[in-house]
Automatic annotation (TrEMBL):
Compartment list: Cytoplasm
Pfam families the UniProt entry points to: ACP
NCBIfam families found in the cross-reference section: citD, PRK13253.1
Keyword hit for Transport: no
Subunit structure: Oligomer with a subunit composition of (alpha,beta,gamma)6.
Originating organism: Dethiosulfatibacter aminovorans DSM 17477
Lineage of source species: Bacteria, Bacillati, Bacillota, Tissierellia, Dethiosulfatibacter
Name of the featured protein: Citrate lyase acyl carrier protein
Described purpose of this protein according to its UniProt entry: Covalent carrier of the coenzyme of citrate lyase.
Amino acid sequence: MEILKPAKAGTLESSDIYITIYPNESEGINIKLESIVMKQFGSQIKRVITKTLEEMGVENADVIAVDKGALDCTIQARVEAAAIRSSK
């Protein structure tokens, strides 16, 4: 799947995550993360985002994530929604 245009998914409500995905000019998946639980779960959140994109076949993307304590399943759903929106 190729990221063609910027897209967003999620909210800034408690227990949610706001994902913005952009086409990436360079190679790979770049993640900029802001989270209220960065020290405890920052690396796990980045793993979930990366794994979800890789499973969808996304090789190049810039992702900005603003997390408000979302569970892994919510993170995955928001990333999937943003990626699908950006590919159409």
